[in-house]
């Protein structure tokens, strides 16, 4: 079974559901990799060994009991999967990479977790992340940074660095992170794998610990488009427990992969703005040329408000975060400091000790932009800008099926390079944040390497509910590459 | 310079606006499926949503929306087709999310008015600014002696509330009281809130200021909190109006602040300034969609609105031809009005029924401190009793005895027959109307009282009552008075 690392999720599911491979064996292998390579990378906060092995043996039993093959195979049967440590899974702690939640164990499963289990996936562990998903390098985790499998000194990107590293290192073929502003596409780009930020409302947020509620989406990583489509299909289910979950019939994404469609692709010139690394730009431009050569229509366009997206994004995300993180107050769960002092002192001490610097910075920023006298100038204005960006995207999608550009302005940077310069760190999200603001689906796919062999990510953005187009273009791209 | 004596002469008038929170009696909480109930094991009626656990999300309860719509429509307000939930951010241990989901600049209802009367005066009107939906917080249970920790019970957390905000149209504590009574009556008629202020199902904060009579602009207001009865609101307002007036007369200034009413001490004391200096940082709740209410939905709720007190009283006047005052009393609560109509359906003399219900029935209810629903003697028994009187089986006076016995039986042992017929039979109280039997007794009385008969026939007509009394004594009060009157007149002649 030494070829586990090179197997796709689709191959594993097929092999397990036909009885050729045992889910328990596969699970053990994945757990062993997580314990060894995963530990090297610091990719996991918790391994879910007990439940994973139980799930796997149940799957083996189901396969055994169904020799005749009467029931349809589970799409992710026996596929080891990792989930970011901000997704609730009963029986294991959910830390969000923070000290403040120490000891907290959710008494319920996220809807996405329920759907994964229904699809036959085996959840082997919970991955390391920037604290409360706030960070672009995984350096803000209370549990230490995750290393990029591409190179020890490189950040894996953030905030879903652990999930990205686990997939890139071959520990699992599929992992889930979450996006608020590029937290899956950016690490996918840095680690040389694929990441999809779905349409807002595509995957239920129920059980995903909130950061910026109007932006948050659980988002999958995989090493190829078929696995990515399988992963998304399994969890993209309408959920009445999430008011923002979209109720519409999802197409069969994997079936549509092979359709040879020629797309009208728009190239916003704002995606090639100042700050874009020359090597990255060249690689992306070459990629675009190859798509043109394949018969796709390529057209330049201008979406000037993309330049405002970082400002709008950080204003809105921080505002929502300041409210979402108010519940960590030392009263109900997690740590409590100064419990013998006054209520106000207990709150202050618990939050001072429990949150890291980046989280505190964003809570303060968010509190400020919502406060009386500043609301109109900041939060309100950012919301208006967001509305305008949405309209700009809508009109772009009247003429184009997809937008294209670099995922990030640079390839993976080094540890310590930006951690003390929040603004520089925030700017690494400059091309990804607009899709979060508009709720559009977007996908990052590897597009060559820099001269020092760091992966470069190419981003496609589609109209809302346009995941099929993203999987198709990704599939077409794989054949080109 | 104005001397104290001169300032004293300025007359001040108060201006009052009320903010009332009413707990909606929905089956489940406003944003989750947890049951709404009182007095259960602390924290037993909770789930990840109302506990505010990380990752849990709210889902709006449609029934809560409809209850709010009922109230808005009943007071003539406008149900807004588009309204928005907003987060009100503040820290408190019984607020597990660190924010309350409420509505801010786009409430579900705007406008409307409450009509009320002070005592039996002319109807007055208080306009409403808005009605909005929100969730209740939990309860902090502060330490009693020997305990050092405050405990938190989140059973109440997430209960649906409407907040009803009035214009500053109320000009005295008595008006505020009358407004609250009316508000409660409407809420109860609509069956959206029990209206029980003692249990906290209804809560009221009052904003009050005073100004010299004749002045248009409002004075600086203070906010009164922590009143737990309507009378408490009236007393707190009276106290605060006197305080503000005295302060102004002494040349002082009113500070805009919040005051806590202390019912035991009968004083309102300022809250510590820290407790009130909140910047709630309202912003639209991203976890909920904007609330869209179609005109069809509004009309379907309107169509199902129950008859309100005034309409009901009007109808009672025209349908039953009872007195206006009686109609007012009988429509005081929906259950009493329903009770009256149930009795009238079985006993076709509305005036008699109205009298009886207002006297004997309500008196007994008050004595026993029971509601109509809790009282075991039902409309069918009351109607039966009234029929016994109207058919002459028992006298009106006896009916009181029979009713008392019915109640006592019903309260002590409902297995026992407490029907009016059964009680009359058991007590042997049936009225004697049989003429031949009564004629014998009348004859006997006449023959035994010859001197009085003579005196009567000589013109001492007052003695007629004496003969009636004698017959009643002989029959232990069970004789039908009409029959006796006739027989006596026949025999005594003029």
The CATH topology of the domain at 4-257 in chain A turns out to be Amidase signature (AS) enzymes
List low-confidence stretches of chain B.
none
Domain count of chain B: the total is 3
Strand order of the largest sheet of chain A: 1-3-2-4-6-5-10-11-9-7-8
The Rg value of chain A, from CA coordinates, equals 21 Å
Report the count of strand segments of chain A.
Answer: 11
Share in β-strands of chain B: 15-25%
CATH class of the domain at 4-257 in chain A: Alpha Beta
Mean pLDDT of chain B: 92
Q: Biggest interface and its residues per chain?
A: A-B, 45 and 29 residues
Helix content of chain A: 25-40%
CATH superfamily of the domain at 4-257 in chain A: Amidase signature (AS) domain
CATH architecture of the domain at 4-257 in chain A: Alpha-Beta Complex
Largest sheet of chain B: 10 strands, mixed
Can you describe this structure?
- The complex is a heterodimer of chains A (481) and B (494).
- Chain A has 481 residues and is α/β, with parallel strands linked by helices.
- Chain A has a domain of 254 residues: Amidase signature (AS) domain (Amidase signature (AS) enzymes, Alpha-Beta Complex), CATH 3.90.1300.
- Chain A contains 15 helices and eleven strands.
- Chain A has an eleven-stranded mixed beta sheet with strand order 1-3-2-4-6-5-10-11-9-7-8, with helices on both faces.
- In chain A, strand 2, helix 4 and strand 3 form a beta-alpha-beta unit.
- Chain A is globular.
- The mean pLDDT of chain A is 96.
- Chain B is α+β, with helices and mostly antiparallel strands and 494 residues long.
- Chain B contains 17 helices and 17 strands.
- In chain B, strands 1, 2, 6, 7, 8, 11, 12, 13, 14 and 15 form a ten-stranded mixed beta sheet that branches. A three-stranded antiparallel beta sheet of chain B has the order 5-4-16, with no helix packed on it. Chain B has a two-stranded antiparallel sheet with strand order 3-17.
- In chain B, a hairpin with a 7-residue loop joins strand 7 and strand 8.
- The longest helix of chain B is centred in the middle third of the chain and has 20 residues.
- The radius of gyration of chain B is 31 Å and the shape is elongated.
- The interface between A and B is large, with 45 and 29 residues.
